[in-house]
Every structure is written in C-alpha cells, then in structure tokens.
Amino acid sequence: MSGLSIQELLGEKEAGLDLEILAGESGLGKFINSPRIQKPGLALAGYTTNLHPDRIQVLGSTELSYLAHLPPEKAEENLAQICTLDISCFIITKGQTAPESLIGHAERAGIPLLRTHHQSSTFISQITKFLEERLLPSTTVHGVLVDVLGVGVLLMGKSGIGKSECALDLVLKGHRLVADDVVKVRLKLPAVLFGEGVDLLHYHMEIRGLGIINIKHLFGVAAIRERKKIDLAVELVEWEDGRQYDRLGLEDESYTLLGIGIPLLRIPVRQGRNVTTIVEVAARNQLLKEMGYHSAIEFQDRLEKRMAETAHLHAHTIIGDNLE
C-alpha cells in the first residue's frame, strides 16, 4: 500500500475536499498510510490508548465543543499528550475556528492542522472514498490499454512488436485509447484492476517513423478514456515456424497483476495477419465468455457428442451384421 503525503492531500482539488492549512506546515511531509478516519473524542478526555496516530483525526462540533468546556489547564494537558503521539494530521470540519491552544500545540509538534467547510459526515465519506482509491496497491505495465466495445484490452509484447500501431488502428475503427507505452494499474477492492495513463503521456502515442501524436487532438474526446477496468490481456509475440499455437481456444491462461489474474491471449504476429481484427474479435469473444457462452467449449461438446453418436451407430452396425 503506497502512502499519501499531507502536502499531496492539501493540494488535491478534484476530490472536492476543500482543505486549507491553519498550522503545522513543517509536518506537510508526513504520510497517510490508512484510509480509515478517527474522531478523537476519548483522546481529548485524556484516554489515548486506542488513538491511531497514522489515521486522520477529524474534529467536528462535538469535539471542539467538549474541548472548549474543559478547564484550560486540563485542555492544555490533554492536547499536549495527544501531540506527543506523532499524529498524521488534524482536520477541523464545518469551517469552525480552531482553538488557539490546538493551533499552538500543532505548530510546536509539527502536526498539520487543516480545515474544511464540509459537514463532518460529508467530509468523512468523501475523504474515506478518496483515500481508499489512492492508497490501494498500484503498479505500472509496459503496454497499451484500449477500450474495445467496453472491454478493457491490455496489449503487451516486446518493444517494436506493433502494440501502438494496433491500438491506433483500433482508434481508427472507433474504439478508445486509455494509455500508451506506460499503463498505471490500480487495484480496486475486492478484485478489480483499473488502468490509466501517467500524467505526462496522457492522450499521447508514439508511432515509429511518425513520432509523438496526440490522440485527443487528432480524433476528439470520443477517442480517449481517462481510465478503464482491465478485462483481457493480449500478448503480441513473433511468429515462430514449427511452434504449436492454440487453435481451439481451450487453453485458458491468465496474467497476474497485483495478485489478480486476468484472461490472457497470446497472438502470434507475422506479415499478412490482421492483428487489429483479431484483437477486436478477441474482445467480442470475451464479452460472450462473461455472459457464460464459450465458443470453444461449445464446439468441443458438439464434437464429442457427434463422435459418441458415430461410435454408437458403428457399434450397432457391427453387432447387427454379426447377428445376421
């Protein structure tokens, strides 16, 4: 699980957290490693046993009201005790004014003290969802991710095999590019993989002999997607004479990413093979499989049934001839 710094959290705009810093700027380099949130009500009363310093501590109206009703000496003592625990950060909700004592302790301890205008319940829901997504495991894959008929197809293969050219051809057929060259893959619970492009390469594609092109500018916003669930991995491999390739589609393979297996197809590439069409048909076939229809298995069942019927007729003929 990767961490998220308080500086990154403070700079996050798309999630609508609306955060501002009130104190403790020296602690902006601290990291959040848990998506769970805590409201430190008991800790403000002096019981810090079950306080989790690695979690964001949310202070709403109840917490600040209780702090205000404590004798000043007791409030100072309890805040000092909490701030010795290296809290990741405090966040005050509803745009409330932070107590001077809290500002002072947070500044001296280097604990970021942030504020949002959101209600506590709304903010906790928003930031929990945001952290669950950002803190889940992620990795990068060398390949191209394309949305083909709603199926997220991850094209892989060694450099120069033709992944980008295949993806470009798919875009020309009306499908959508998600990422080229570097695909950032995130795990979303319980067992779903999502791919997206890295910031620098978004919407761009490298075509040897042509250079870097911008798919969004060339083909419009309908030709791109920000992110897509990965449903199928396709590895492009060089054709080898004499090598046996799967001709029936009965050999189900999988490709493992972040501990999750996704269906894998190996497509041999050689002159004269229309790889783009094969990938498109593979996506259509994957849709059928997800609906419970497996063409290869159905063909095998029909073949075995036909062989059994033929064997039965042949045996009946032999027995009948002997009886005569």
From TrEMBL:
UniProt function note: Catalyzes the ATP- as well as the pyrophosphate-dependent phosphorylation of a specific serine residue in HPr, a phosphocarrier protein of the phosphoenolpyruvate-dependent sugar phosphotransferase system (PTS). HprK/P also catalyzes the pyrophosphate-producing, inorganic phosphate-dependent dephosphorylation (phosphorolysis) of seryl-phosphorylated HPr (P-Ser-HPr).
Note: Both phosphorylation and phosphorolysis are carried out by the same active site and suggest a common mechanism for both reactions.
The keyword Kinase is annotated on this UniProt entry: yes
Start and end residues of each HPr(Ser) kinase/phosphorylase N-terminal domain: 5-131
Family: Belongs to the HPrK/P family.
Keyword Cell wall biogenesis/degradation: no
Binding site residues for Mg(2+): S164, E206
Enzyme Commission number(s) of this protein: 2.7.11.-, 2.7.4.-
GO biological-process terms attached to the record: regulation of carbohydrate metabolic process
Region (Important for the catalytic mechanism of both phosphorylation and dephosphorylation): 205-214
Cofactors required: Mg(2+)
Organism lineage string: Bacteria, Pseudomonadati, Thermodesulfobacteriota, Desulfuromonadia, Desulfuromonadales
Region (Important for the catalytic mechanism of dephosphorylation): 268-273
Species: Desulfuromonas soudanensis
Keywords, ordered alphabetically: ATP-binding, Kinase, Magnesium, Metal-binding, Multifunctional enzyme, Nucleotide-binding, Serine/threonine-protein kinase, Transferase
InterPro entries on file: HPr(Ser)_kin/Pase, Hpr_kin/Pase_C, Hpr_kin/Pase_Hpr_N, P-loop_NTPase, Ser_kin/Pase_Hpr-like_N_sf
Catalytic reaction(s) noted: [HPr protein]-O-phospho-L-serine + phosphate + H(+) = [HPr protein]-L-serine + diphosphate; [HPr protein]-L-serine + ATP = [HPr protein]-O-phospho-L-serine + ADP + H(+)
Gene3D superfamilies in alphabetical order: HprK N-terminal domain-like (3.40.1390.20), P-loop containing nucleotide triphosphate hydrolases (3.40.50.300)
Official protein name in the record: HPr kinase/phosphorylase
Positions with a binding annotation for ATP: G157, K158, S159, G160, I161, G162, K163, S164
Gene coding for it: hprK
